[in-house]
Amino acid sequence: RERMRDSRAYVRVLKFIEQAGGTVTLNGQGNTTMSIGKGTTHVLKACVFLHLYNLVESTGMLGLEHVAEQIKAHKLPFRDLNDNWQKAWATAFAKINEDLAIENRLEYALRMCQTISDDIALEVEAKVVGIGNLDDRRIETMAERYGIPLVIRKRVKTSIKYRVHNDLGFLGLVRERRNGLAHGHDSFADIGQAYSSADLARWSWATYQYLKELVSSFEAYVSAKRFRR
Fold this sequence. Notes:
single chain; mainly alpha; two-stranded antiparallel ribbon; 9 helices; 2 strands; 5% strand
């Protein structure tokens, strides 16, 4: 909620600059006036994609980490975890997705067997390996992998799924634009020019509504201890 307040405050500033015709007066030591050209405004608008992407990525990851923390807090051994979290623990603990030498792979496999047979309380490392940068579709894939039901109201889901770019909803667009900007493939000015502050404000609010329900889904999963067998 705090981070979304920051993003929405930023968007309000963008809308003010656009409505003011690109001229901003700063009150303080005299009235200092600065003229902000359209190019600068476009650069500022493109930054909204970075804000929203960081919020989506961090919320998705924090949700998984919250479940992992609860598993640790309950001191659960392997046999008490459900299939999804058994696989998650085994994949990370035995480094199944890593390219190991044969002798190292055997060592990790033996350690895994010993941990299971000794009923040692587990620490699960929650990862999104193979899913990539998060948007609504990839969050759904992540939740399905870990067996976490997502309860999203129809109105919110319709808003998220409404296509704004090729076959993508706006969170897919946020992911694509963020990647292009972060890796230097796209120009901030060019990206910002393509979208209005009103669009960015609407998408920011819809992102907030979606992430609130995502957090609630994780919280309901944890409250019901659905990570247990």
